[in-house]
Design goal:
The complex is a heterodimer of chains A (222) and B (306). Chain A is mainly beta and 222 residues long. Chain A contains four helices and 15 strands. In chain A, strand 3 and strand 4 form a beta hairpin. The chains are: A mainly beta (222), B alpha+beta (306).
């Protein structure tokens, strides 16, 4: 089976809520049924996307842009690959599965995320990992302001230094064998994250304005 | 039927084995030295369920490619008479032997429907600072790991490992002209048997010199020395030994399946016999209880294809 693929047909000038395009909603639906699904008032999936493939456990978005929002919202399983940029609230409240964004993500990526793996190969906007409860969120590019705002537990994996966060406490630089396990799990996916090897990381704990059990790991501190 | 291997007589008898519960744990560390330190502690004082609760041993070494965290390690097998004891012993030994050992980590070595706690309860040692990670394995199945902050960094353990029905008590006896000759034959057997997967020989060095019989003249003792195979009692008790036998040693095998044990017995007996009758090895026999105790009978002639 080939991945269920949504290819954006035309330029978007407004935010399009893609939260319904997850494995749980699309499983067992025919292409025709998927095309007829309502995405927003007066518009169906077919108005915005060409749809191909059949494997709802692996969903691919192509020719994307920064207006595709809420991708992977509340997803529970499967994999979503975004072959480009996406909009705000990527993976909001996701409860499992894996999201790979090969471009940049908008604001509040991983907002209220509870479980799963969210990997952004480009940049992430402001409030990345806001109120994130658990799971793993990785960003290879730059991150915006208010990183990990109100983040409770979970891991925020960074390849580039974040701006200083007043409610995050520096725990120093460590060698963490656990990262080998994490990187090994990335090897299941087609992503730049699978190339990570360094187990030397700087660690912060936060957000100490809340329970402060989350961590930011800045990689490549060899 | 008179069966011989390299001039060594193989008795027409059988080893009698019984049901156990078994589990496998993969222990990794910074290097093999520390993986062995952890594994040796974990499998220490685990020769017999009679006094130790479990029987455990190191199954094999693991390369970096064979472990979940890409570090060198060893695989250990642990067996008990019931699931409850196995769970208790695993938790205690994890806490005292693996958690405490610098750089060591522990992972599941068995995929099975029945799962028992590996780090599930040990995580509370983290006093609220423990971190859970649910990560997909190579097959895409999510596995839960715990990261527990400790003084050398982090202790990593998988939440559970598998538990399966297994078999304990496979055995054979090596009978010879002298203690040193019998021990040499047993050492040759253990070297060969240790190359096989899914089995352990839990006694010191894989060999036991104090085989037992059921019961005793003392009411409080439920097992006592196997006098029929004690060379110094020849003539004084009902003996299984002729006057040429001066030493007897036993190799006990626990394994995951009947076939695993049967193969290890075959390989071990052949290795012991390879030294030949000229080296003082006279007979191979086996320990049993008349077929009344365990459901698994390992008949020596059948195992050797005689």
């Amino acid at each position: 089976m080939t991945a269920l693929t949504f290819t954006l047909k035309k330029e978007l000038s407004h935010s399009l809520d893609c939260s319904r395009l997850t494995a749980a909603v699309l499983a067992d639906k025919s292409i025709a049924e998927i095309k007829a699904m309502t995405l927003e008032a007066h518009h169906t999936v077919a108005d915005w996307f060409t749809v191909s493939g059949s494997d709802a456990s692996h969903i691919v978005f192509k020719d994307t842009n920064q207006h595709l929002s809420y991708i992977g919202k509340q997803m529970q399983n499967g994999t979503i690959t975004i072959e480009g940029d996406c909009g705000d609230f990527l993976g909001q409240s996701m409860k499992g599965g894996t999201i790979i964004c090969k471009g940049n993500a908008g604001d509040r990526a991983g907002d209220k995320m509870r479980r799963g793996i969210l990997l952004i190969e480009g940049n992430a906007g402001d409030y990345c990992a806001s109120s994130l409860m658990a799971g793993t969120l990785g960003v290879l590019g730059a991150t915006g302001s208010h990183l990990g705002y109100s983040m409770k537990r979970g891991t925020l994996l960074l390849a580039k230094s974040p701006t200083e966060q007043i409610t995050w406490v520096d725990c120093g630089i460590h060698t963490l064998p656990f990262l080998k396990l994490l990187f090994k799990s990335f090897a299941n996916f087609d992503t730049q994250f699978a190339k990570l090897t360094s187990t030397r990381a700087q660690r912060w704990m936060g957000d100490i304005s809340g329970i402060g059990k989350a961590e930011i790991l800045l990689l490549n501190q060899d | 039927m008179n069966v011989q291997k390299n001039g060594v007589q193989i008795d027409d008898t059988f080893a009698e084995a019984f049901n156990m519960r078994g589990t496998r744990v993969l222990i990794t560390a910074q290097n093999l030295k520390w993986a062995y330190n952890a594994a040796n502690a974990m499998t220490g004082f685990a020769t017999s369920v009679i006094g130790c609760g479990v029987e455990a041993g190191i199954e094999c070494e693991l390369t970096e490619d064979e472990t979940p965290d890409g570090r060198p390690g060893v695989s250990i097998l642990m067996f008990a008479m019931g699931s409850k004891v196995l769970m208790q012993q695993l938790e205690v030994r994890m806490g005292q032997c693996i958690l405490t050992c610098p750089t060591a980590a522990a992972f599941s070595g068995l995929a099975s429907e029945d799962q028992i706690s590996l780090g599930k309860n040990l995580r509370y040692f983290g006093d609220g600072n423990q971190i859970s990670k649910l990560l997909p394995d190579a097959d895409g199945n999510n596995q839960r790991y715990w990261r527990i902050p400790v003084m050398d960094g982090e202790f990593i353990t998988q939440e559970t490992t598998g538990m399966v029905r297994a078999i304990g008590g496979g055995n054979f006896l090596v009978l010879g002209e002298s203690q040193s000759q019998v021990l040499a034959a047993c050492e040759a057997a253990i070297i060969a048997m240790k190359k096989l997967p899914n089995v352990i020989m839990p006694f010191p060095g894989g060999v036991v010199r104090s085989g037992s019989k059921v019961g005793s003249k003392y009411p409080k003792m439920f097992a006592s020395t196997n006098d029929a195979f004690c060379p110094t009692l020849k003539g004084g008790v009902k003996t299984e030994l002729d006057m040429g036998i001066e030493s007897v040693m036993e190799i006990v095998i626990d394994g995951l399946t009947f076939d695993d044990i049967a193969l290890s017995m075959k390989v071990g007996i052949e290795a012991a016999c390879s030294l030949g009758a000229d080296s003082g090895i006279k007979r191979i026999s086996a320990g049993n209880y008349g077929g009344k105790l365990g459901p698994y009978l390992f008949k020596l002639h059948e195992i050797l294809g005689a």
